[in-house]
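Methods, example record. To illustrate the input and output format used throughout this study, we show the complete record for histidine kinase. The sequence lines were provided to the predictor; the line carrying structure tokens was produced by it.
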Amino acid sequence: MPADIASLRSCFQSHGFLFVTNQNLPNVLVVNDDPGSLIGLVGLLSQWQQELNFQVFSARSGEEALRHVLMHEFAVILLDVNMPSMSGFETAEAIHSRKASASTPIIFVTAYSADEMNRLKGYEQGAVDYLFTPIIPEILKAKVGVFVALARNKLELKLQAKVLDKKTRALTAINQRLEAEIDKREIAEQKNRTTEEFLAMLGHELRNPLSAISSAATLLSMDGVNHAQSTKARQIILRQSGQLTRIVDDLLDLSRVMSGRITLAKRPLDFSKLVHACLETLVFSGRTRDYQISIHTDIVFVDADPTRMEQVITNLLDNAIKYTPSGGEIDIELRSTNEDVTLSVRDSGIGMSADLLPRVFDVFVQGERTLDRPQGGLGIGLSLVRQLVTMHGGSVEARSDGIGRGSTLFIRLPQIYHQAEAPEAMPESESPDTYRILIIEDNVDGRDIMSMRLSSLGHVVITAGDGPSGIELAAKEKPDVILLDIGLPTMDGYSVAKALRANPATCHMRLIALTGYGLEEDRIRSIEAGFDLHLVKPVDHERLLKAITASPAKAAQFL
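The corresponding predicted structure is encoded as:
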């Protein structure tokens, strides 16, 4: 018996009595070596094909029957017992030894009356029945009809299974799409909730200092206010203005860092000195007066951007104050550990739960907020810390023993070995006490308050509300310093600066950009336009005075 499928297919096509096949109809195979008997059985079955809805195959030997079985499934096989070379019993054994055809029903056809032993042998080979010639057509039709009906039901079940499988795959695909849409919707809803919570938090954080500023300003305008009250009101305005500035700066800086729009200006930095300076600023502001602060620092140097490191340290200290009740302890330690520098800020505050610890440096994540908590925040300070520390090649970590047991925040930075330089002696006076200052600013309130601030210090102040009138006044009044806003109507500050630098009468004047645009590209554009310095609003009093009174080179070092 050939094993090669291609040769079997060729042999299959070379024999007669083969009808056009339909895979959706049950098949009946007639096997008989006698041509007359084979033609008679096939012809008899052909009469019932349309009625019983099946198709007939024929074979003249056991070998040919096996080739058919390899290629098709059969509802029933009518198998002659007495065939040369390969008997019906041998053929039946071969058919049922194959897994795919092991359950195929076989009816033995014989002209001899089978004794009990032959019947038993046939049943052992898987026969389901015997037919004796001459065959009675009604009996043949009844027997074949039973197996054809069973095979048709089996085919229908297969077709239904295919349809169900196809529908299942389609439903699975639809379900997967729906799940994906649900996931997207949940993510979108979570983003919306986060945005709404953030906006609500932002509104709360902005209203608090604005309310304090408004109340203090109202107090100053009232009659009968004594000196102590007016001093307190001014302090409140300064303190709350600083809070507003920190909120805006944190928002802008986080956006710049996450979009890769910040360029670090690294230099060897005495980290211990910077930590002490940041703490002194908080002490001066009065924010630490209700806490027990301890600080221990090694003298260590890092390669870092001083401004960005100041943000990192201030945010760590601010976080400790924010989440520690009055009377609590805050311990600051700066240590040299092998090749690294480790800054830790430990507090005795509300602590953190185990599920919050891995997320504390994520954006907009905060500890539990209570209505009576005096300090607020947007949940971006620690995220900004992580981003900036990572940009410096460092790492961050948070630890806590649980709610109510305080927490510790760590930052680690690569240590460098640098010889501290002696501070350069500054001359006692390098500039006159007063200046002629031109302010070019379109915002009336901002222009007026800046004019009053500088006039109270003895400076001669001239103001202009737009670029063209500012250029005209600069040529006429010959100011020493020009404070120039960038966002001016009709003619922006860059164009005004270029025009002033192009005029021999005004090209020597000191130009200071005083603007709300604080991106790195804004600073670069200012320098390219001819500005000496770029200050971002609001500018605190000391920084403004340094910008005005020091030489451009010295002022750039201080700012």
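Annotations derived from this record:
The domain at 5-135 is CATH 3.40.50.2300 (Rossmann fold).
Residues 1-20, 368-376, 424-431 have pLDDT under 50 and may be disordered.
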